[in-house]
Design goal:
199 residues, 10 helices, single chain
Length: 199
């Protein structure tokens, strides 16, 4: 992959970061692990304790995603590409959700799975533009819908149903993004070869 991207136009930058970062799919492996832990915890751990697992656990998803990216050999951060800065700002939005989540944890703890689910789902939408990915549109819409339907229909089961439903959504998104990333990587590799031959 190219490290000097100053000569690339916007579409080339988007293709390069999509290929380099695998369209961000390591974050969905981390997300699946998070929701699996929350779902299993919901089976065995009292709700008043699970609230704190949500509060602290959500902060571990990004470091886990970075670790996963190293294991699967994906340059998830791709800091040489300016679009990575935009992606970092989009991801950083979640930090500013913290006061909302803390307030709900104290006032309405049974709403925590719903709030965490909706906020994490919604924050992924801008990546649909960064990576030009329909997978991110699916993830945002499906996550918000699944969490909302469960919240308004089976609130007393939210700590069980929301995590396991979101594992399904995240798994579909993961395979979708892997497929998209494979296609864009092939296109980018071919474009690099063509450029090197023409030089």
């Amino acid at each position: 992959m190219k490290q000097n991207v100053s000569h690339l136009n916007f579409e080339e930058l988007r293709m390069e970061i999509s290929a380099e970062a695998g369209k961000g799919y390591p974050m969905f492996i981390a997300g699946i692990i998070f929701w699996l832990m929350m779902g299993v915890g919901g089976l065995f751990v009292p709700q008043q304790i699970m609230v704190w697992f949500y509060l602290f656990g959500i902060g571990l998803v990004l470091p886990l995603g970075i670790l996963v990216s190293k294991v699967v050999h994906v340059n998830f951060l791709a800091t040489h590409n300016p679009l990575s800065t935009i992606g970092g700002l989009v991801g950083g939005i979640q930090i500013f959700f913290a006061p909302i989540i803390i307030l709900i944890a104290y006032q309405q703890p049974n709403w925590i799975p719903f709030v965490v689910g909706v906020l994490t789902g919604a924050h992924f939408l801008p990546y649909a533009a960064i990576y030009q990915s329909k997978g991110y549109i699916f993830q945002t819409v499906a996550t918000v819908l699944a969490a909302s339907v469960i919240c308004f229909g089976w609130m007393d089961q939210a700590y069980l149903l929301i995590p396991f439903s979101l594992i399904i959504v995240y798994s579909i998104t993961l395979f979708w993004l892997i497929k998209e990333a494979k296609v864009v990587k092939e296109k980018w590799t071919a474009a690099e070869k063509e450029n090197s031959i023409s030089m």
